[in-house]
Amino acid sequence: MSAAVLDGKAVAARVRDEVRAGVARVAERGIVPGLAVVLVGGDPASQVYVRHKHTAAGEVGVASFDHRLPEATTQAELLDLVRALGDDPRVHGILVQLPLPPHIDPIPVLDAIPPEKDVDGFHPDNIGRLAQSRPRFIAATPKGCMRLLAESGVDLPGAHAVVVGRSNIVGRPMALLLTNAHATVTVCHSKTRDLPAEVARADVLVAAIGRARAIRGEWIKPGAVVIDVGMNRGEDGKLCGDVDYAGAALRASAITPVPGGVGPMTIACLLENTLAAAERSKG
């Protein structure tokens, strides 16, 4: 078996086209969707992500507001900025780039984002709504994963889905989305006793643990669909995912590449959320 490649770049391009059309539609009502991105410090990976987000926003007509703060920014200063953005009518979506410097607690910062502007979907109000199957905003990476699963044609109701990783950013919301789609969901983590056995039962596998090629190809159930959220540097210095792609592709029916899989979907779905926030702001 040779797995079909789930091309995140191609699907993300379609999502951006949909957002571009939506931006033109709301422009007729005098609305320009606005996204504010806040970056604290000089983390190189975060700088790349933020640059890509601003570029993508400009390509679809979303106004972007770039706030870059020095590493020494205090928690109080960051909270003041977030609250000011919450009051700014030009800003429909607020994203605080993670990770923050060690001296800043991210929880009160993310909690300070108004839920109706929380396009990252991290606010407790939005997570709670997702848990009740009535979401407002869905975290962009899990949302992108669900779109890729839809594109793969996988029949989720009744399927056994395994999510490896339980972070608030990917693992937990991903498990909720799959549950809401009527899959039977297992969440694995660092305390899971027999990870290979759990992975081997998965009709759908979502890997989000941040360890290069930690999930071996021979663990994959033949015919499974594999969504690899990981973005790591392997020992050879090349970008790779959490799954051993070469081995998994011999057994899976469909798989996302790294890079070019989930990554482009995250930014596209962030823009989709920003458009939705702008539409909601005017009823």
Please render the helix and strand layout as text.
Layout lengths: L3 E2 L2 H20 L6 E7 L3 H17 L2 E7 L5 H13 L5 E4 L9 H7 L11 H8 L8 H13 L7 E5 L6 H10 L3 E5 L6 H6 L3 E4 L17 E4 L3 E2 L5 E2 L4 H4 L5 E2 L6 H20 L2
Parallel strand pairs: 1-11, 2-3, 2-4, 5-6, 5-7, 7-8, 8-11
Antiparallel strand pairs: 9-10
What do you see in this structure?
- By secondary structure, the chain is an alpha/beta fold.
- Helices cover 42% and strands 16% of the residues.
- It contains ten helices and eleven strands.
- Strands 1-11-8-7-5-6 form a six-stranded parallel β-sheet. It has a three-stranded parallel β-sheet with strand order 3-2-4, sandwiched between helices. A two-stranded antiparallel ribbon has the order 9-10.
- β2, α2 (44-60) and β3 (63-69) form a beta-alpha-beta unit.
- α6 crosses α7.
- The chain is globular and about 50 Å long.
Write out key terms for the chains shown.
alpha/beta; 283 residues; 10 helices; 11 strands; 3-stranded parallel beta sheet; 6-stranded parallel beta sheet; single chain; globular
